[in-house]
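Figure caption, in words: inputs first, then the predicted bound structure.
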Amino acid sequence: MAGDRVVIVGAGVAGLVSALALAADGFEVTVLERAAAPGGKMRRLGGIDSGPTVFTMRWVFEELFAAAGMNFADHVRLQPLHTLARHAWDGTSRLDLFADEARSVEAIGDFAGVAEATRYRTFCRDTKRIYDILEKPFLRSERPSMAALLGANGFRGLFDLPEIKPFSSMASALAQYFHDPRLRQLFGRYATYCGSSPYLAPATLMLVAHVERDGVWSVEGGMHALATALADAATSQGANIRYGAEVREVLMANGRATGVMLASGERLDADAVIVNADIAAVADGLFGKAASRGAPAIPARARSLSAMTWSMTAKTSGFPLHRHNVFFSGDYPAEFDAIFRRDALPMEPTVYVCAQDRGDDAVSIDGGERLLVLVNAPANGDRHVYDAAEVQRCAERTFGVLKRRGLTVTPQQIQATTPNDFHALFPATGGALYGRSSHGWTASFQRPGARTKIPGLYLAGGSAHPGPGVPMAALSGRAAAACLRMDLTSRARSRTTAMRGGMSTR
Ligand SMILES: Cc1cc2nc3c(=O)[nH]c(=O)nc-3n(C[C@H](O)[C@H](O)[C@H](O)COP(=O)(O)OP(=O)(O)OC[C@H]3O[C@@H](n4cnc5c(N)ncnc54)[C@H](O)[C@@H]3O)c2cc1C
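Bound structure (flavin-adenine dinucleotide present):
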């Protein structure tokens, strides 16, 4: 109900989206963020975007701003990218994927032959179909159940796609589409967008390929500008965002969340609390024992990927970089085997390079340019110490892969972030960046929805439903706001009815 007090723990994308939606509805919203700036994983290091770099599903943000009576385009400037990414395998094999399907078909034809290009068309058709089937009953639902999905319009259509069995792995489905192992590797990489292995993730995750084809934009001012715009929008609607404010406990009375206690000892009362920290932090008791019932634990073996990243300015030569570049390892199964089975960094990693000063054209840049270099890593930041020697060895392997694919990087300034650092930034995760891994076809149903067992306590973020990624976390923030609004409204109604009947529920 308008005027009710809501505390939101965390100014990640989901927390900010909940804040915007609820403040626009007239709730009295306070966001408490332990860091010094908004965005959470969407962070900057020395002016370099050091978290998400691929912006997709623009419609999510357009809808969110519109619901608050604002126009997204007035707050965030986007440039469509015609080239989605440049992929490289060795010194000579390169393939660009484009937003325009026909251009990709042509490029794949040149790269791997006409038959493979025809199969790519089928792949595009089917991934669109998967997306269309799942958008409403899964992505837009507050929390899907298998039963609801089975009953949803069109869901059974998934079983009609000959190459996909919803119960098969992404890698085995991709093997039905593509004969060229490089293409299987390229499209399998989309599993990592959910922090998962293509050999263990379900085939339905191939819908990410459609999401990218549907549009990738670069954000003027960098991805962090999106976080700032969301924070400004929420503030303009009346939300109060406090930085350097760490929450230690969700306070409870009579089994209901009634506020929070900060590390400073300050208490804030609230009618409802939304936690945007990782659900593992709730389950592990970082917000108090009573609140821990509010989220399912994520066992270490079920964690998604972490990463080793280097935020840098550097001179580059020898390879025509685009904005998004992927340099593939020679042995993809070995990479995921190292991470998920042996809890170790891969010997030869696949390397993602975001060249942040570049747009669609592979222009040459004299002097230094800003790069984020990323390799996947196990989420063991709470039980393994990445010392300077190990980080150095990982850097040598990473930049060695780039060199063998033709790219020489000469750093000017460089800052590494390890799974230990990610664990410190996002407590209780071991550095896992995407919540629970999406391994096995039931994994998607194991992410909790926004409502918890505890009245007045809600979850929002990439570790909750519908999952990780900036737009998905935003959808989760919207779902948390919607559930909270609905629950407080019906609580107020039942209170009024009870009062009329002559008794108070307080
Ligand atoms: C290196 C990297 C690359 C990525 N690439 C992409 C990409 O290209 N495209 C994409 O869409 N997604 C990408 N992602 C994933 C995406 O960034 C996340 O899924 C999304 O940003 C998560 O948002 P969230 O709402 O879960 O909040 P988070 O970003 O997890 O933020 C949670 C916030 O809660 C705060 N917090 C935690 N505990 C407390 C406490 N006790 N008190 C107060 N505050 C607290 C934290 O400080 C943090 O600010 C990437 C992530 C990383 C790290």
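The pocket of flavin-adenine dinucleotide is lined by residues 9-15, 32-35, 40-42, 51-54, 246-247, 276-277, 281, 307, 309, 374, 426, 433, 461-462, 468-470, 473 (CB under 6 Å).
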